[in-house]
What does this fold into?
Amino acid sequence: MSTITTKAFVMNSFPWKERHRLLHLLTPDLGLITVLAPASERLKSEIRGATQLFSLSEFVLTEKQSRYSVRSASVIESFIAISEDLDRLAAASHAVEVFTDVARHDEPNRTIYELWAYTIYEISVSKSPVFVARMASLRLMVEIGLTPCLDSCVRCHGLVSEPFRFSFSEGGLLCSREEFRQTQAEWMILSPSTLALLRHIATVSFARLFRFYASPEVLSEASDFADRWLEERMEKRYNRLAILEHNPTFLLS
Ligand SMILES: [Zn+2]
It folds into this structure.
């Protein structure tokens, strides 16, 4: 049995065998791990804050045959604003699902941890937390190599010009010289402003990722693009933002 001290974000938390809890933790060096939080009364009160969903905490874990359990934990940042606002909560839930899907299937990757750190912070403070979650998911796709070709023609690598036609089936822009017989369901036209924003999201440092200004039209177009790119590349439907579309005012009162 060995002891590990690590920072980690709590990505999921659920009851286990009556009294215990299981946590999914995103760590810098071990990737996504499943951890048992034992139900000792002393430990339970001590680690309650540190094991709250979305918290960043420092954990002391014991490891035995790749099974981890919590020995002690202390909260670093609880991001409490997320649980107090429906938009932030939906945004964080969506982003957690995407990041967890990626981290579960990839080798431990410090970049995913760092991108998550910027993302969950921004979701807790941004005026547009849902948009932040969508753009973070798009950047995550780029980080794992599922990069849309936004700089040149995906077929001939030549210059692209307006109208900017993006083919989802081919994964990139098409220049004006390309034959274009696809049905409209397979492509979308990107405005120059939306294309500039998407290029920003795909390339800048994480520290500058969420520093941009965009009109409502651009936010809407970029959201459509990011959702579609995510779902086609991950081959999965993500439904956690749908709760916001049904105007659940009863949840806010
Ligand atoms: Zn071309």
Summary: DSSP finds six helices and nine strands in the chain. The CA atoms of residues 95 and 137 lie 7 Å apart. The radius of gyration is 20 Å. Residues 81-250 form a domain with the de novo design (two linked rop proteins) fold (CATH 1.20.1440.120).
